[in-house]
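Working notes for the structural subgroup meeting. M.R. asked for a predicted model of this chain before we commit to crystallization trials. I am recording the input and output together here so anyone reviewing the notebook later can reproduce the run.

Input as submitted:
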Amino acid sequence: MAGRLLLLFIIVPIIELFLLIKIGGIIGLLPTIALVILTAVIGSQLVRRQGVEVMGRIRAAQARGEAPALAMVDGAALLLAGFFLLTPGFLSDALGFVLLVPKLRQRVARTLISRVVVMAPNMRGGPSFGSAGGFGQQANDDTIEGEYQRKPDPARRDSDRLSRDD
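Returned structure, recorded in token form:
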């Protein structure tokens, strides 16, 4: 995983630089810089507008008592889109604009949510799937519920106990 991330952090900037140089050679330096700035400004406005809509969907889902999972993943995708759009480069801008398409973003969000495994804590505080099929249920549960009462031991004398003065 670390090797893939390292490779990603090496290859993506090289591709971005290559595209900036190639496009800069075709349309010129100033138009290339203006285009990069323009995509950042337009992208940030689109992310802001769609982010307000997503926040409204999150609040509406919470008001209905539902978990806003789809809207939360949608918001995370918008955050990623904003990051890509503010990063200088044409490849990152293309990825950012692709993430701004609501239908595509929601399809990706549904796919991610369908692959998430929900774990519920059991009584001992750790995650449990249980073999009985339910969350938090364990097949070999050693817990015995009940009440207890401490009774004095007649064989034990008070002189056997340690006093606080010792």
